[in-house]
Amino acid sequence: MFNFTSQPPLSLYVHFPWCVRKCPYCDFNSHAVKQEIDEYRYIQALLKDLEQDLPRIWGRRVVSVFMGGGTPSLFSPESIERLLSEVRARVALNPQAEITLEANPGTVDYDKFAEFRSAGVNRLSIGVQSFADQQLHAIGRIHGRKESIKAVETAHYAGFDNINVDLMFGLPAQSPQLALQDVATAVALQPSHISYYQLTIEPNTWFAHHPPVLPEEDRLWEIQTSGQSYLAEHGFAQYEVSAYARNDQRCVHNMNYWQFGDYEGIGAGAHGKITDVNAQRIVRLSKVKQPTDYLQHAGTSQGILAENVLSRKDVGLEFMMNALRLNEGFAPPLFYERTGQALTVIEAPLRRAQELGLLEWSVERINPTDKGRRYLNELLELFLPD
Asked: Parallel, antiparallel, or unpaired: how do β-strands 304-309 and 281-287 relate?
């Protein structure tokens, strides 16, 4: 069925499910804090979760760690240090591994950032979303412009040289001028990486039931392209749909996702993808979502919400849905290496995508065209199973 000859790179994702307040656009597994978080107990649950999965990844090196949420920066630096120390005791973490922590500007200060760095965090992803108070209020963020700017500046002062700023566009009442001011402010703060992506209304969110008035399609396109141009002019190269890096400081963890690498996922609602060369299969795992259930069952069979073995069609589709997000696409041999299948299994949709001008295909590389990047959903639909 498959012919895996090697294991892909392995990352570790750690989910922290609590936030100060649930944002109205957020469809992630996050829950507003209603009482003091028992940090010790949650870290213990994470370690039990990891230990249960160790046989799946035994002996493999971990190239990156990403602590996401939710709001991981709600946790103390002491808890983060303990977690990373215990992870190192259980898995082979590369000495130069990228270790990212997501931070909300409303939950950090200099001392906390400096202590996170001492704990082993070497990359921060700061959820700014906007530098305009009106837009921040409209999307339910707990911080304002001043806190956004201070958070990025403070990260620099604390010694971080690998900082991502998250920015959203297409916000309620946002004009192209306001959106471009957001980008200009972010660039002036000199992060190494900017994630610039459109606000979308997801099902089962507060905004889905109470939709805000968002900019029209033409204005959205103007906002997007003017922001992209500004970023390019100031040294931020776009390498993925919503990712821009200076000096090629791409996010190692996300690159592994997009190139269909493996990742172990621990935490409430975390997902993982593991290639088993011996069994010639790829398994997807997800953990129970509710924090109370997770705390009770982590490390047991009841802590696993689902375990699915991917079919050949699933694998091919998932590879393409990730790899075609990259501007440079992928080298054809990578498809065989990561899916255990010959490229011929997707030859028909590849040919069709070429005919439609959505894809370029050569011996060296398969990548979306400018048109393919603009109409990425239409491109990806070509690879859906019949």
From this structure: antiparallel
Q: Averaged over 69-73, what is the pLDDT?
A: 94
Instruction: Find, among 25, 13, 3, the residue nearest to 206 by Cα.
Output: 25
- Picking from 124, 32, 16, the residue whose alpha carbon sits closest to that of residue 71 is 16
Contact by Cβ (8 Å): 20, 89: no
What's the pLDDT at 165? 98
Architecture of domain 10-256: Alpha-Beta Barrel (3.20)
User: Cα(336)–Cα(344) distance, rounded to whole angstroms?
Assistant: 10
**Lowest mean pLDDT, pick from 75-84, 137-146, 260-269, 277-286:** 137-146
Give the gyration radius of the chain's Cα atoms: 21
Question: 295 phi and psi, to 5 degrees?
Answer: -60, -35
The string of pLDDT tens digits covering residues 310-366 is 999 899 999 999 999 999 999 999 999 999 999 999 999 999 999 999 999 999 999
Tell me the domain boundaries of the chain: 10-256, 328-386
The answer to whether the predicted template modeling score (pTM) of the entire model surpasses 0.85 is yes
Report how far residue 16's alpha carbon sits from residue 102's, in angstroms, rounded to the nearest whole number.
Answer: 10
Percentage above 90 pLDDT, the chain: 89
pLDDT higher than threshold 90 for residue 22: no
